[in-house]
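Journal club side-thread
Mid-discussion, someone asked how the predicted structure for our own chain would compare to the paper's figures. Pasting it here so we can look after the session.
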Amino acid sequence: MTQANCTTEEEVKAFLRTLPGKDPRSVVKPVQSAGSDDVFLCSNEEEALTAFGRISGTMNGIGLLNTCVLVQEYLKGKEYVIDKVSRDGVHKLVGIWEYEKRSVNGSNFVYFGMRLMDPSSEKMQIMVRYADQVLDALDIKHGPSHMEVMLDNWGTVEAPEYVPCLVEVGARCQGGEGTWLPMAKECIGYTPVRTILYTVCIEFKSSSRWERARYPATLPGTKHTLLHSLDVYFVFILYTMLTLYYILYTMQEGYDHSYFFISTFIDEHVEFHAKRLLA
């Protein structure tokens, strides 16, 4: 994907002149945010500059100041989420979801829903292999990854040629307040949270759960959706039993695990680790 980190309108204009092909559309958004916060689909230079002005210098959805703006080429196709869990450079698929985003009330990327996909088709396997290449290139060898990929057909209906392109990837589990957890547990039988536990506490090469997979220290606040599945408690309690470590944890009454929760208590988190790392 062609993109540029812009701090001035002149940089936006310069980037737009480099866009490949004849498609003048671009996507303008904050460098650090989430949930399609201030993501604009722009048809021309004027719209791109207007979007830049609305984002630059403002506070975004996760409480950070937008000191610069990301401008990207527009990618055609369907957007998918690929969730994986890795250990020692071995990547296991734990979910593929198809995003359904619509244009509503002047916004181009409003979440309408997402659909859990069957990973066995060749179309899905193309993205699975592509995701492995991305994780290897970024040297992500351990833990969860949450990847967004656009998949476009460069061929014909009769002879499709599916080409994936990375939108972004985070070394974390899927967010969305955990609303996807009940569906994952019902349809797949396990979640990324539990799969992470198995890779940490159980020798994964001999773990039947790990081999059978078709999708082969802070607790959240008391209002977090994740707690309804008990996955968080499962991880901490079983890890404590297996390792015989004593774990002291804190839960914040009335908070979920949103970005506002993280930004509110990040000072305590950094201070805790700094004392131990710099001791």
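Post-session note: Confidence is low (pLDDT under 50) at residues 203-220, 225-230.
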